[in-house]
């Protein structure tokens, strides 16, 4: 005796529920904006001091570090623009900011790479810069704090643009570390070649980070307002 299968009714798929409210999203956006203002203030001082000290000491590394600060300052302005007014809830503004922040990596990489190669070939020996060493120490301490805070907020907001700026802050810390090694090595042991070698590594990392930021590969970045669950397990390689 054959059995008859009764048709089953499939419940309609419910629309995604926002992981956080618009009010909470707006609050987090305000925190990002505040952190970006802090970044802009620091980058303005850092850039001016680094370029001035670099010219005085004939240090390509210091001048390059100062120009990197200018680029990061532009990225901070972009994020401030992104999270101001009605753009806080605008996907178009998020995508535009994401591309603009990613472009900053590509502006940085060629310059750092070119100057590093030129310094190695020419064998340029920069003068000792105590101001440069102090500035690098400050950036090594301060930049990771900003970068980590922004990346955590980026995961909650689902903002690849904010994630990209946070990564720029971390890249600044790496660059400051490389600068510190180069300046200290030059001052203590005359190892002038350390800075350009590490500079080449920084340039390579900048290209990688820029490509990921351009495509929005931001470690679990999604849109909470479209139902992205900020607490769900991360599947990205960088989260493992």
CATH fold type: Alpha-lytic protease prodomain-like
> Structural class, from helix and strand content?
mainly alpha
Write down the domain tally: 1
Range of helix content: over 70%
What would you say the CATH architecture is?
Answer: Up-down Bundle
Shape: elongated
Number of helices: 6
SSE ordering? HHHHHH
Mean pLDDT: 77
How many beta-strand segments?
Answer: 0
Query: For this structure, what is the CATH class?
Result: Mainly Alpha
Q: Bin the strand percentage.
A: under 5%
Main beta sheet: strand number and arrangement? none
* Regions with little confidence, pLDDT below 50 for 5+ residues: 13-17, 236-240
| Spatial gap, N to C terminus | 55 Å
Radius of gyration: 22 Å
Which secondary structure elements does this structure contain, and how are they paired or packed?
Layout: H1 22-57, H2 60-82, H3 91-122, H4 130-157, H5 160-188, H6 194-214
Helix pairs in contact: 1-2, 1-4, 2-3, 2-5, 3-5, 3-6, 4-5, 5-6
Explain this structure to me?
The chain is built from six helices and no strands. The protein is mainly alpha-helical and 240 residues long. It has one domain (22-217): Alpha-lytic protease prodomain-like, CATH 1.20.1510.
């Amino acid at each position: 005796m054959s059995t008859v299968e009764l048709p089953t009714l499939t419940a309609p798929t419910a629309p995604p529920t926002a992981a956080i409210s618009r009010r909470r999203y707006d609050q987090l956006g305000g925190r990002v904006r505040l952190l970006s203002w802090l970044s802009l203030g620091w980058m303005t001082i850092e850039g001016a001091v680094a370029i001035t000290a670099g010219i005085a000491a004939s240090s390509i590394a210091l001048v390059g570090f100062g120009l990197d600060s200018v680029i990061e300052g532009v990225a901070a302005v972009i994020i401030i623009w992104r999270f101001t007014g009605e753009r806080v809830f605008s996907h178009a503004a998020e995508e535009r900011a994401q591309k603009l922040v990613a472009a900053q990596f590509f502006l940085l990489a060629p310059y750092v790479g070119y100057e590093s190669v030129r310094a190695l070939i020419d064998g340029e020996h920069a003068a000792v810069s105590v101001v440069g060493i102090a500035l690098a120490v400050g950036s090594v301490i301060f930049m990771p704090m900003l970068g980590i805070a922004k990346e955590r907020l980026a995961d909650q907001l689902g903002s690849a643009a904010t994630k990209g700026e946070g990564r720029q802050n971390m890249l600044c810390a790496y660059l400051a570390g490389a600068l510190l090694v180069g300046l200290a090595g030059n001052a203590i042991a005359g190892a002038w070649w350390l800075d350009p070698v590490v500079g080449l590594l920084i340039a390579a990392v900048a290209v990688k980070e820029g490509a990921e930021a351009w495509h929005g590969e931001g470690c679990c970045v999604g849109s909470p307002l479209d139902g992205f669950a900020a607490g769900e397990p991360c599947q990205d390689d960088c989260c493992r």
